[in-house]
Amino acid sequence: MTFAPEWLALRENADAQARSTELVDALRETLVNRNPLTIRDLGCGTGSMGRWLAGRLGGVQHWVLHDRDPRLLGLAEAGMSALENVTAETREGDLTSLEAADIAGADLVTCSALLDLLTTDEMNALAVACVEAHVPALFTLSVAGRIDIDPAEPLDAAFQDAFNAHQRRVVDGRRLLGPDAPAAAEEAFVAAGASVRTAQSPWRMHGDALQSEWLKGWVDAAVEQEPALASEASEYLRRRSTASVVVHHVDLLALPGAV
């Protein structure tokens, strides 16, 4: 699955405002005296995570940017290389089969809005790889399956349930975690022997361009899952376009026992 650069640009500010700085503070304490830092960013997109995190970690950093989309990798590498004290390289390919050997030597593995696209087995394997390689993981903005819309109306629950079911769909024989990702990630890292902290990282929107684009995608996915909602979709979109919306996410910091 790939994402348009325009969508990633639209959401970057909301992502930056939502991510937990408390988890970064806790992470930074474990990285003291590591200079330079080598950071692997999984599903990097255009480099949003790196642009948000690099300055918060400080020091000299080398980012290894992983993605399946070569166009996004080019944008990410250019953006990250422009940052002070940061170098970057890219890795194009599948992220679902990384092993400990693939991330050995890194000081940190990160991702943003990625875990819902994994399966349970892939999530378990990623956790084991990070712990076996003794590499901390900071995974942000995993969708939690909860949307708050104010003022509320009865159809909200129907569209939310349909969207969540769509996120758990089977794609090419793989059942995606969707909104089960935060719990699955925590369970996987704890089972692998890591200590885990989580934090809420909600988007908050009120009638802006991000809300308009997100709401259209949310409703379209719900209708694809439950075609009976199609007759309600147009008017529902019109009514909700000026509402206040909170999209709940979860950030996770996992520290292997050896860190």
TrEMBL record:
Keywords, sorted A to Z: Methyltransferase, Transferase
GO MF: methyltransferase activity
Top-level lineage group: Bacteria
Methyltransferase domain: residues covered: 41-127
Keyword tRNA processing set for record: no
Membrane-spanning ranges: none
Keyword Transferase set for record: yes
Record-linked Gene3D superfamilies: Vaccinia Virus protein VP39 (3.40.50.150)
Biological process annotations from GO: methylation
Name the UniProt record assigns to this protein: Methyltransferase domain-containing protein
Species annotation: Lentzea flaviverrucosa
